[in-house]
Structures are given as C-alpha cells and as structure tokens.
C-alpha cells in the first residue's frame, strides 16, 4: 500500500461513506484528485458501489464514480481500521430521532467508540451529519479531552442533485479551534463555490434553522391547501393568483407531502433543543403529518372507503428519486386501509414487489392520489370518471 507524503495512505476517509450524503461527497473529492476511502458497514452497498453502480438515484454521479474507481482515487472498506490511514476523517452517518422525537445523540457518539482507537490528534475530524447542538463538544469528551481538531461542516444538498449542489452551494465551515476551521475551509474550498466561516454554534443553528424553515414553509402552504379545500376552493388557482406578479408571495411552495428523513427530524431536534418551546416547529409537524389524515377524512365524506379502491402514485419521499424513507405516502396508505379501503401502490423509481405499474394502478383504482410528483406522471391520461387527488397539480386533464 503506497503512502502519501504525509505518511497517510488516504487524504480522506468517510465514515458512512456509502450513504446518501457520504457517497456523493466522496465521489466529488475523489474527482478533484484526492485519495478517498469510503468506510461503511453496509456490505450490500459496498458490492454495488465497487462494481461502479450507484445504490440509489443521484443524478450525474455514476460516470464520476466509475472514473474515480478506475483511476484508483476512490476505494471502499468495511472495517474500521482504515480510519487510521487517512489524514481527514469525515463522519456522515445518520442522526435519527427516537420514537418520542428526541435526538439520539448517544447513538451518534457511540459510533466513535467503534473506531476512536484508530484516531490520532493530527487528523482533522469533520462532522458532516446534521447534529443536535453541542454534539461537537460532546465528541471532544468522548475522544478523551482537548487537542482534537474537530470541524462541523453540515451538508445542505437536496437528495438526487448532490453532485450539482456540492459545486453550487456555499459551504458552511466551523471548527472547535482555528486550525480545524482553516483545514476544513481548505478542504471544502476544493469543491464548493464559496466558504462561509462561522462558529460551531452558529453552524449547528444554520443547518437546523434551514431545515426547520423549509419544513415550516411546507406547513404554511399545506395549511392553506386544507383551508381552501374545506371551502371547496381550488388551492392551485389561489396560489397561482397569489404569486402572479407578486414577488412577496413568490416563494410559496406548492402543497404536498413534506416527508423524508431530514425535515421533520431536524425540526424536532431544534424543538428538543429549545426545551420543546418551538411552537412553530410543533405546529408545522401537526400540519404536515396531519395532511394524510385530512385527505382520508375528505374521502370519507364522499365514499364508504370499504367499497372503493385507492391507488397511490409515488411512494418515494420526493420527486424523481427512489428513496422511500419516511414517505408520507405509506402513512396515507395505512390510514386508508384502516378504514377498509383497498389500496395499491406504484412508483417510478422505488422498487418493491408489492408495487404495481402506474397503468395497472390507474385501471384498478376508483380514486388516484398523487403521492409525489414524479415527472413521469405529468403526461398521464387519467379517465374523467376516476377521482384524482393531486396536491401538486401535476396531472393535466
Ligand atoms: N439525505 C440527505 O439529503 C441529507 C441532506 C443533508 C444532511 N443530511 C444528514 O446527513 C446525515 C446522513 O444522512 P444520509 O441520508 O446520508 O443517511 P444514510 O442512512 O443514507 O447514510 C448513512 C450511512 O452510514 C452507514 N453507517 C451506519 N452506521 C455506521 C457505522 N457504525 N460505521 C460505518 N458506517 C455506518 C450506513 O450504512 C449508511 O450507508 C444525517 O445526519 C442527515 O440528517 C442528509
């Protein structure tokens, strides 16, 4: 194994390197000529990525992955000793909340116990995962005191478009000390369009506020949708009228399921941090998570659900990707089934042996709900006799 001038084998090891955040980041650094090793416990993904394929949809990533593997800049390891061999350790593992919506900080910190014996103080440790405030200080404690170079550089990409956004988005950089901050700024300067330096606390809040802000925006539009709908007024037309030539309303998003592994989770991390006094965050959760119930209640006013078949088109949590984590389409399906409806699922990208094709779903269902606005649904011809619930307004009739 040849070593770099600094004595390490790799420039970067990414812990959680085969995940939605770790993998595109590793590919980008490798494409810039850095020697990157992806360390992950997911053996299945390791085999897929090793063969030059992406295990999930990330547009424009696969050609770069193939190149990086071929030139030897990117490799994969599934055992933690490799952490000792890189100058920079980037941590991009998941940071979930528990069933009571409390952050699982301990679970995140425990991951360091698996490889902390391989860490040395001259390495730079970069936290890329979205963390609960104060986690970086906690990490110093877990690692056994002062002198560690710890940086927090949160990821802000939108899933599916990481390759484009890693280049375009400004990168927030913070460090527990100046040396960590400077080294992290130098590192991300290789891929990001702009570096924004802030303190650790500001970086933690910047990330959590960004996701909570987005989540609250979705809640506002979803609440408007529910009010319009209760009055039998077409919300698409109200929204269009609001935005037409009126810049102050121009950023109002379309109504729709606000789901996925980040927005709700990060809003709840912020709520936990503010002593559960984040009323807007909690309200946003009630509204966004309540939208499937609202849709079912509206259907129940019209139908005996035990006598109809409902098809949900789109099971991913976001358009044009294959990730179903925390998708509200499943919650909708569950509530419908609870009330006796027969429910069919379909998706353009996510695979599941229980899913049917969109054509079959249209044939089988009395009511069709658009769960997520995949582009493939834009030109669908849906017979007039079928009822459509289309929060995004993708279906043209
Ligand atoms: N997905 C996004 O679009 C996105 C965007 C911004 C920020 N984030 C944040 O980034 C973090 C990671 O999210 P993600 O979506 O990439 O999660 P993910 O589940 O896709 O990836 C995490 C990876 O870590 C690996 N892993 C878990 N435990 C491990 C261990 N002990 N050792 C080594 N590898 C381990 C998993 O196998 C997985 O491949 C989270 O904090 C998330 O909130 C995600």
Which CATH class of the largest domain is shown? Answer: Alpha Beta
- Give the number of DSSP strands: 12
Residue ranges: pLDDT <50 for 5 or more in a row?
none
| Total individual domains | 2
Global structural class: alpha/beta
> What is bound: which ligands?
nicotinamide-adenine-dinucleotide
Major β-sheet annotation:
8 strands, mixed
What is the CATH topology descriptor of the largest domain?
Rossmann fold
Arrangement of strands in the largest sheet: 3-2-1-4-5-6-7-8
Corresponding CATH architecture of the largest domain: 3-Layer(aba) Sandwich
What distance lies between the first and last C-alpha atoms, to the nearest angstrom?
Answer: 62 Å
Tell me the overall shape: globular
Describe the protein in words:
The chain is an alpha/beta fold and 397 residues long. The chain folds into two domains: 10-198, Rossmann fold (3-Layer(aba) Sandwich), CATH 3.40.50.720; 218-389, Rossmann fold (3-Layer(aba) Sandwich), CATH 3.40.50.720. 40% of the residues lie in helices and 13% in strands. The chain contains 13 helices and twelve strands. The strands form two sheets. The chain has an eight-stranded mixed sheet, sandwiched between helices. Strands 10-9-11-12 form a four-stranded parallel sheet, sandwiched between helices. Strand 1 (10-15), helix 1 (22-31) and strand 2 (36-39) form a beta-alpha-beta unit. Helix 8 (200-230) runs parallel beside helix 11. The protein is globular. The mean pLDDT is 96. The structure holds nicotinamide-adenine-dinucleotide. Nicotinamide-adenine-dinucleotide (NAD) is lined by residues 15-16, 18-22, 39-42, 92-95, 111, 114, 129-130, 155, 157, 159, 261-262.
